[in-house]
Amino acid sequence: MADGVVALAGRVFPQRSPLDLSARLAHFRDPWGIVALEDGQVAGFKLGYCDRPGRFYSWLGGVAPEFRRRGIATELMRLQHERCREVGYQRIRTHTTNARRTMLLLNIRAGFDIIGTTNSPGRGLKIVLERQLGPPERASVSSEP
Ligand SMILES: CC(C)(COP(=O)(O)OP(=O)(O)OC[C@H]1O[C@@H](n2cnc3c(N)ncnc32)[C@H](O)[C@@H]1OP(=O)(O)O)[C@@H](O)C(=O)NCCC(=O)NCCS
Question: What does the alpha-carbon distance between residue 10 and residue 4 come to, in Å, rounded to a whole number?
């Protein structure tokens, strides 16, 4: 499964150096991800970790080109936020760029606010977004007998 995520990350982000999951994720607490499978193949993934108490950092995600526009990224995000809420995170942070406009729009639609930007030499302008998480959604209990 991890190999499938690394292979898909290489296709989705060809400009990045090959994803070394263990090196990156070993430095952080609570690293986990969600994977979408189609006939046993990794069609999409979303990875993140706890970067400070109460805050989950949504680091990297992508969907294979042949599986796009089917709601996979939307569902991966929904599941990520649901789990974060369940395990007690108060907020989720993510970074994106103007070039990744689809992801920027998806994030805004999902309830993220733009809270700032960073601009470092070589890495360019990053848009910083955060979503506050409410309490876990509970199944409604009917008062009828
Ligand atoms: C961004 C990305 C994850 C979206 O994946 P996806 O599974 O196709 O997204 P969804 O199907 O959930 O799309 C949800 C909505 O986003 C919008 N959207 C998605 N792709 C779009 C596109 N290429 N152009 C315009 N709008 C788009 C649409 O409103 C879409 O809903 P609709 O299909 O009902 O119109 C995928 O395109 C991708 O992997 N891109 C390259 C990597 C990347 O940018 N990753 C994010 C940074 S870490």
Answer: 10
The domain spanning residue 81 has which CATH number? Answer: 3.40.630.30
Paired strand residues for 119:
125
Tell me phi and psi for residue 71, to 5 degrees. Answer: 85, 10
- Residue 67: give the domain boundaries: 2-94
Going from the Cα of 142 to the center of ligand 1, the distance in angstroms, rounded, reads 37
pLDDT tens digits for range 48-105: 999 999 999 999 999 999 999 999 999 999 999 999 999 999 999 999 999 999 999 9
Pocket residues: Cβ below 6 A from ligand 1: 12, 60-63, 68-74, 96, 100, 102-103, 106
Q: How many domains does the chain have?
A: 1
Ligand 1 centroid to 81 CA: how many Å? 17
DSSP one-letter string for 24-39: HHTTSEEEEEEEEEET
Tokens of 75: 């569902």
